[in-house]
Amino acid sequence: MCAARVLTTLRRGEYAGLIGLFFLQGAALGLWFVPLSSVLAAHGLDDLRPLAFATGSLAAFALPLLFGAMADRHASPVKVLRWLALATALTMALSSTMIRIGANGWVILGCIQLHAFCSAPTWSIASTIVLARLTDAKKEFGPIRATATIGWMTGCLLVSALGADGSTLAGYGGAMTWLLVSGFTFFLPSSKTPRAAEGLTWKQRLGLDALQLLRDRDHRVVYLTTTLFMIPLAGLYPYTPPHLRELGFLRVSAWMSLAQVTEIVAMVALGTLL
């Protein structure tokens, strides 16, 4: 019975670490992604807005495959996330600084694209770390994933509470949170570093062999559904803030966080639904 109690305590501590990881990462994303449209508008960069939000989509095409392959075959996922979080923090701070000092628009866009390249793989790698530690992922992942949404809402509420909806302070706050994510990885359960596989082709090293999963019907359905879902989402974050301001809403980041309430309900109910 004593051994079982110790095991339960260890598992609770491990779950707390996974919850903390998702919460911090969600907050870091919310601190940057939601107020970015307002920040660009406040600094006279309205024309840059669609291009700035397209950087994430461009980075999402290739980088998650590349770093996913690295985490699977060459390095511990925890270490990969640690260095990516650090790089994301630095590039987010750099992007915010370029916006604040009024640098050339193309320089700002280049910094935002560099930030997108660093941040794009982090979510999938964090999910891999969490899923690998769960005993019953189908039931346990949903509630743990909901903490990331709570973190996202917390980041948005913090931005509006500080009156930073149109300020680069939001970006600097996001950078600090990414530094916390990087430091937090030192407290995560250690994962075994994969043995470097020999005789890999460049296609395998770049993770492109994962594309063969699309031959499976279920994977194609998920891929196409996600693609269609992202089309309206691509117009939400760039253009909802100015629409809300026209309607008289001032703290737009906080108001936009209300959309995540239904997401939390869905995540908590996910295990039961599955």
Characteristics:
76% helix, mainly alpha, disordered N terminus, Growth Hormone, Chain: A, globular, 274 residues, 12 helices
Q: Would you write up a description of this structure?
A:
- With 274 residues, this protein is an all-alpha fold.
- It contains twelve helices and no strands.
- The protein has helices spanning 2-33, 36-42, 49-73, 77-100, 105-119, 122-133, 137-161, 169-184, 202-205, 217-246, 252-256, 260-273.
- The radius of gyration is 19 Å and the shape is globular.
- The two termini are 32 Å apart.
> End-to-end span in angstroms?
32 Å
Low-confidence stretches: 1-7
The fraction of residues in strands falls at under 5%
Averaged pLDDT, please? 84
| Rg computed from alpha carbons, rounded to a whole number of angstroms | 19 Å
CATH architectural designation: Up-down Bundle
Query: How much helix is in the residues?
Result: over 70%
Task: Specify the structural class.
Answer: mainly alpha
Give a short account of the largest sheet.
none
Question: How many beta-strand runs?
Answer: 0
Number of helices: 12
| H-E order | HHHHHHHHHHHH
The third-level CATH topology is Growth Hormone, Chain: A
Overall shape: it is globular
CATH class: Mainly Alpha
Number of domains: 1
